[in-house]
Specification:
By secondary structure, the protein is mainly α. It has one domain. Helices cover about 70% and strands about 0% of the residues. Helix 3 runs antiparallel to helix 4, helix 4 packs antiparallel against helix 6 and helix 6 crosses helix 8. It is globular.
Length: about 160
């Protein structure tokens, strides 16, 4: 069954236009995996006011920027999917990699605020970062991917055979 409507549009905005809609439909819940894990770590780091937790997430976000898959996608592809009986997650497109780049910078900045004893600013920055990540984790609505589309053009899905 093809994935239609809002979910497909939001995943297309993230750059998954190269994935056939029937495959996207089965993987749609699992495309939340990496954002959800990142959100959990961001939330913990922010709640604890810990630059170390936030900075510990930076290498994962940075790798998600330069690689075609986020490091947490590999946890799913080589572990979880065998328990769920689902296909591996596809490579992520440029908009989602761009989002990882924004997250990398945001994590570093938030950690710097906590390290500089600017806790209120750290909580605000960390709270906003966690909210943005939670939004994509729950709804696939990715603000950084939208920004990518405005700057570089929104990815478009080629016409698929019916």
């Amino acid at each position: 069954m093809p994935l239609i409507g809002t979910a497909c549009q939001r995943l297309d905005t993230q750059g998954y236009v190269h994935v056939p809609q029937d495959q996207l439909a089965t993987l749609e819940p699992w495309l939340r995996w990496s954002p959800a894990l990142c959100t959990a770590v961001m939330a913990i780091g922010t709640l604890l006011g810990s630059q170390w937790v936030l900075w510990g997430l930076v290498p994962f976000a940075a790798l998600g920027t330069i690689a075609d898959r986020h490091p947490f996608d590999y946890l799913y592809n080589y572990g979880v999917r065998h328990l769920t009986g689902t296909a591996p997650l596809p490579p992520q497109g440029a908009p989602r990699r761009f989002a990882c780049g924004i997250a990398s910078v945001w994590l570093i900045a938030t950690g710097v605020l906590f390290a500089a004893d600017l806790a209120t600013a750290g909580y605000v920055m960390g709270g906003l970062l966690t909210a943005v990540a939670l939004l994509v984790s729950v709804t696939h609505f990715c603000i950084p991917s939208l920004i990518y589309g405005l700057l570089f053009g929104r990815p478009t899905r080629s016409t698929e055979p019916s």
